[in-house]
Fold each of these.
Amino acid sequence: MTETRCIPVVCAIIELGDKVLAAKRGSGTTNAGLWEFPGGKVDRGELPDDALKREIREELGVEIGCGLRLQSVFYSYPWINIELIPFICTIINGEPIAHEHDALCYISSKELHSLTWAPADLPVIDEYIKTKSQIPG
């Protein structure tokens, strides 16, 4: 049976200079081998930015600061419906280590579409590029 309710999921667009962090999903996971912005499910009663800080601490071993929240993406996978809630973030403390992913890389926004992304992340990329183009400087 397919999940009909919408699960809130957060993701971090972690900036370092003019690049952002991409994470390759590990083997044995759904969407294995595809790239994503790291994050995870929001627990009941948890605020999205708190959930993101927790997930990034668990997955990458770093502390982040959450900045601008981008527009949510509603996406239906065959096994789950999600509301993907993206935030532009920066690392406050630590160096990312792939605890749950097969690989991590920093990539420029111009090169983002060169990776093979999880489908729900594609609209996030477009929204991020659009948002960054509207910020002066």
Note: Helices lie at 48-60, 122-133.
Amino acid sequence: MEIRMDFLNWLDHETSMKILGCLQDPPDLVRVSSVSRSWRHFVIANGLCKQLCLRMFPHFRRVYCVIEPTCGIEKALEVGRSKFVEWETLKREHRAYAFLAQGCLLFPFKECILDAISASSTDDYPVESIRNTLLQGDRSEGRPSYWSSKGQHDTAVPETLVYKLAADICVITEINIQPFQAYFQRDSPIYSAISVRFCMGHPKCPMGDPLGEPLDDTADDKFIWTYSSPEFPMAQVY
């Protein structure tokens, strides 16, 4: 008779978490949870689908709770049974985050920025060009990737970066800014703005396509700004 052994029963919790934590595709975790009851219990009890979804899409960390329609009988059974309620919550989150992650992979969020138009100044062009801000991460082709201005003696003088959006109408739900940490300098200092302000508008004259190389120009006289946000202090962290 063939003897089948469940490796989760032979490994400690930390090792099992490390192994299953290597899975990077939500459907793989769903398949793992279908192998056996013990595997399903392990995946759900440790919130592995939720953890993977939040690693892939950090903006979902703002989700406060997951709610599904439930019938009155199920609600009645939950009364006075805290372990039952906790397990049902974990199962609900497992289903919701697995579905959410898969949906985001099928219909990914798109960047609203199409191209860079201008920077008010650039210290070392093209090495420190505004185009570097369009790239993911702080390295490109083995070199540091960042934008740096020439700087001002008066810290009250603002620097400006101007971008072209991907369409005439864009729904902007979130703006992310990552300061640059100079890992190649002593103590790895962080170069961050004191505060930021966002302006939306349109050019006074048609700009045409393609945009070409971004300019060193404040560009204020070339645009009509229809919205300006308040100033937001920027956290001096990476």
Note: Residues 7-106 form a domain with the Monooxygenase fold (CATH 1.20.1280).
Amino acid sequence: MSLRVPLHGRTYSYDVFLSYHDKNFRKSFASDLYSALTQVGLVVYINHHNLTTGDRTNFSAIESSRISIIIFSSNFDASSWFLEEIEKILECRRSTGQVVVPVFYGVDESDVRRQEGCFGKVTQRYESMRYTAALFEATNIPRGNLKGDYR
């Protein structure tokens, strides 16, 4: 079932790069999504160890993936490494045509776009237009909204 076939002369190490920021992975939507994707045979890269800013392992995995899924959830806690990861994903979308799927689980996309609620911490904490622009761009990609319980 793997999608890791050459596309436009490129080969991929991963079918999916799963981007999330949740302190409790084992009891999260990201964990269940990871399980579902791997059960159907997809090769999924996920950072279980929450690598720190400056670690380029995630960047390499993003570049080596056909698809990136960004999960925005109510457990979001702005961190610079997560925001840099989003920037890299969007860069790959623009430069290589990588498929990017933003998922808004338990949050409204407009809160992310306008940086309200837990997403308001982004501009307060980092005062970075780069991150604001990245979140805005990510909310303008065609997406799926999950409301209620996914189980």
Note: Residues 80-96 form the longest helix (17 residues).
Amino acid sequence: ATLLGQSIIHRGIEAVEKGANPVFVRQGIEKAGKEVAAKLLEESRPVDTNEDIESVATISSGDPEIGRLIAKAMEKVGKNGVITVDDSKGIEDELTITQGMEFDKGYISPYMVTDREKMVAELDDAYVLVTDQKISNVQDLVPLLQANIDAGNKPILIIADDLDADVTSTIVVNKLRGTFNVVAVKAPEFGDAQKAALEDIAIMTGAKFISKDLSMEIKNVTMEDLGKVKKATIKKDKTTLVGGEGDKKAVEDRIAELSSQEKAATSEYDKKALSKRIAKLSDGVAVLKVGALTESELKDKKLRIEDALNATKAAVAEGIVIGGGAALTEVYKELKPTLKDGNPDIQKGINAVMESLFDPLRQIASNAGFEPSEIVEAQKMAKKNYGFDAKNGKWVDMFKEGIVDPTKVTRSAILNASSIASLFVTTEAAVSEIKEEKPVAPSMGNDMY
């Protein structure tokens, strides 16, 4: 997106400097961006097999072993299943399946994060409080928090309908002081669906569901009422629970109960909701445990696996297109004859996007030591689905060779680039950093500086 955005901005500004109306140029950029994104979806090929998944993961990570591991994980928990990345105790990578689930709610306050670089809160061996009540008085939590401190002060995840601002600020202040490690998230869903989701979480973690319908009060909660998980990962808008310590028989009974309800349900909406809940309880969580010899190698490997996971999930969602910058060139060939506008300034905006579609291929060719213009011209003449394998310096069927990109990633790149560029061409001024040339340090003699 950065490369495309820069290219579109330069061409758009050049058109404006030559007298084009910036508003019309903007319209052209927006129009072309949407057309290119739509054409990419048309050209997309669905990801159906494990081989496809493995290809995408391998390309994204640059490691065939990581590709195989991700494909195996998706096979175990399903394409929409929950997959997390953790440290291995040894130097080998391994895959484990454990009881757990994920829901679309994140931390209430960003000050609750434990990793500010990733903006994520990670709680190991944590207790879990599950309630459908709004916690309005921090004094209601004091007995529980004090009991936890006395028992060893393990992390606590609070899943509640909501928390008052005063309660949130008190938790944050004490967390920052190191008094305790508590993260609060809002409960998923609303109304009856929220109650059902919280009951599922309580069973999976072994917690007692503190329900307002039963007149249960937060101030009376004890350590015995809390559930436990081996790990909780809380992001801005997502919470993943791994290794829930709920009774397996209770989980199995709950799944059987939900399956019966699904069979009896008459509405399609209810059937889908029940099916989703069953999947969350039964599929579990795949944990990719990453091994390495050094801390720096481990960090790099985990980042590559996380990137590959995101790319693979994107491929499953919208399919794949040929990689290596070839897909955008193919789109250029398809759209160039028809993507026209009677307004010449709008056409200049369209052209800014269309001519930028070659730049990813140009950059790849240049990085591999080939003449960019020659590769681009050859790509324009290439057969459908054929592209340049920069690693081996030859023209191949990109799908057959597994050189592919997730459609969602490529589509998002062009949409984001055109969005930024369209804003930029109608902006009169921008703040940017001017890099200062640092003088070379004077020699101290004897080749020392």
Note: Residues 312 and 446 are 54 Å apart (CA to CA).
